Amino acid sequence: MRHFRSIIGLTFISSFLLSGILLVSLGYLLFQTEKQSMEEGYATFETEHVSTQKELIRHEVQNVIAYIEYSKSLIEQRVRHDIQARVYEAHDIATHLYDRYKGTLSKPKLQALIREAIRPLRFNRGTGYYFITRLDGMEVLFADRPEMENTNILGMRDIKGKAVVREMIDIIRKDGEGFCSYYWSKPRHEGKGFKKIAFVKYFEPFDWFIGTGEYLDDTEAVIRQEVLDRIGKIRFGEDGYIFVLKTDGTFVSHINTDFVGKNYMQFKDPNGFPVIQELIDTATRQGGGFVQYLWEKPTLGKYARKISYSRDYKEWGWVIGAGIYLDDLEAALHEARDRLKKKTTEEFSLMGYLFALLLVVLLSISFFLSRRIGRGIETFTAFFDRAVTSQEKIDEGKLSFEEFKIIASRANIMVEDMARAKAELADLNQNLEHQVLERTAELEKANRELVQLDVTKSNFISMVSHELRTPLTSILGFTKLIARDVTRYIFPVAEADEKAKMKSQRIIKNLSIMEEEGVRLTRLVSDILDLSKIESGKMEWRSEEVRIDHCIGMAINSLSGQLDSKPAISLEQEIASGLPPIICDGDKLTQVIINLAGNAIKFMDRGTIRVTADREEDGGVRIQVVDDGPGIAPEDQAIIFDRFRQARKDKDMAKPGGTGLGLTISRQIVEHFGGRIWVESEPGRGSTFAFTLPRNGRPAAPRPA
Question: CB–CB of 312/319 below 8 Å?
């Protein structure tokens, strides 16, 4: 009972009991959790494995359908490529015969030689042939219908009334060769039109054009067979394959070639389940799904449970499917259960060892803590015994716990209050001046760092802006080259196809947008670079005699492009006679005039802009840009010369495009040469931007950034 009355004993016994209860509770909880987890693991594994296998066969079927869609999308491209190559071959034959015999045979004989040389040529399993027509519509060669030769077929039309021969002649006269699409009947399909694509090429010696055509559905049949050949080779898993049915139940592709071409609509598995009918119904009525049945497994030679996914491809009347055998799944599940049981047993054994080790550790920690607490209490007992006759402080380094150290600190405060107060007062008087000096030095150092940071910022902006201009120039150059090539070479070819024509026009439009945005970005980079150079003191300034009228004229010429898009705006100049030249940088002065007049054009839709120049009383000049535009609100006048700040046309309208740097740069230039710049404006009454420059171009002190 004595142990329960002491802190040490009570702490040790409480820790022991608490550790035991905690470990037993935790062990029971972990056992129940692991047991439930194991039971759920069986079900989860089975569900996930089945889901994975289902996703596998569904993915395989979708891949096949995607391949069919891709192959089908290439039909017209393939037809165009084939017939163009065939016509080039026939044209080469005709050219060769003409060059070989043009000096030895008469024209009629040479024409007959070429015609009869091309007549028997066939391709695409004998369905492809050639025709030759004069540009006046007279048929020279019609290999499939020779009775049409030597007759004028200029008025011949297709099933939909399209003047086919006239269109071919137009293509020859315009481009010398090209494609033509129309709807033509086929043998044994009279009255029904099939889409056909022809390619024709001009044969200059006799004013002929040679051509051939091909039905799209003929090529589609070839592609279907190619698709079936590829499907027949697809394998996945141990026994996975793809099968293809017609909607009437006839197999068109199967791993067992004996099934191909036979109708299995009435087939039933050993349980009487109509397998083929259910696969077709699931694919066509439900848009695809899973069907479970019994089917003979190739590797076993006997029936096994199987689940298949089927989906229809309506355009070809096919049902495409793939499946897996479930006996493989049952074996996998049994193996997984064994592995899970073994793993669980090992985990429980390891858990028991860990619990025993944890109990030993907790008991050791409890014993250790009890001993440390006991030593702390002994230290305090000795301190209070000595406090009667001595002012010795407690050694806090001998205490292990923060709570004991806090108590010791409070006890030591009682001993050292007076000494500490005197020491603190002396230290305060002695260190006050030193602290002030240190703080002052810190502030000066921070100020130097800020100045250096501003210089680094300006240098960085200058470098980045400069580096951006080179790739931007390349981008703009290549954009113009691409636009030119599209307009010159691609657009004329695409005019025969409305869809290609629209895409070509969209490409040209997008390239124009790219060029406009590239020019705008180049202006932005140039403005940033100029401002950065000015603020960092790296701008190169020239000082020379400059004629004001010359600079104004150059600025107006530079703005002619902007005025072309706004014909309702007129730009005028009024220059007083006898203006003296001034000392400044002519290019920079022209840039200021362009910025001010360009802003006026940007904010106006119609009206007049006047650029005036007059003499100042001190011998300098005053230049003004006066417009009758919308004017500027007083609150905007106060900010428009700041960086990245712009005035608005109207409070309900978005800001116009621009960098917001033009007026800032203009102010920097004017003030560099000792001038000043300002704006006078009232909303609805136009604006006047004016600046003055002294005659001698005396540079002003740098303006802070």
Answer: yes
Alpha helical stretches, state H, 486-559: 491-494, 498-536, 548-558
Please state, in angstroms and rounded to a whole number, the distance separating the CA atoms of residues 307 and 292.
4
Cα separation, 447 vs 463, whole angstroms: 24
Dihedral sign of CA atoms 458, 460, 463, 465 in order: negative
**Stretch 173-183: mean pLDDT:** 94
Q: What is the per-residue pLDDT for 654?
A: 43
223-262 burial string, b = 16+ CB within 10 Å, else e?
A: ebeebeeebbebeeeebbbbbbbeeebbbbbbeeeebbee
* Cβ contacts of 330 within 8 Å, gap of 6 or more: none
Specify the pTM.
0.40
- The answer for residues whose C-beta is within 8 angstroms of residue 601's C-beta and 6 or more apart is 559, 562, 563, 566, 569, 571, 609
Q: Beta-carbon neighbour count of residue 615 at 10 Å?
A: 16
Three-state SS string across 402-416, please?
Answer: HHHHHHHHHHHHHHH
DSSP annotation of 128:
B
How many CA atoms lie within 13 Å of 557's alpha carbon, on the beta-carbon side?
Answer: 7
Tell me the three state secondary structure of residue 213: strand
Is 345 exposed, middle or buried (CB count within 10 Å of its CB: 0-12, 13-18, 19+)?
exposed
The percent of residues above 90 in pLDDT, for the chain, comes to: 27
Task: Collect contacts of 353-362 with beta carbons under 8 A, ≥24 apart.
Answer: 355/23, 355/26, 355/27, 358/23, 359/19, 359/20, 359/23, 362/15, 362/19, 362/23
Q: Are 608 and 626 in contact (CB under 8 A)?
A: no
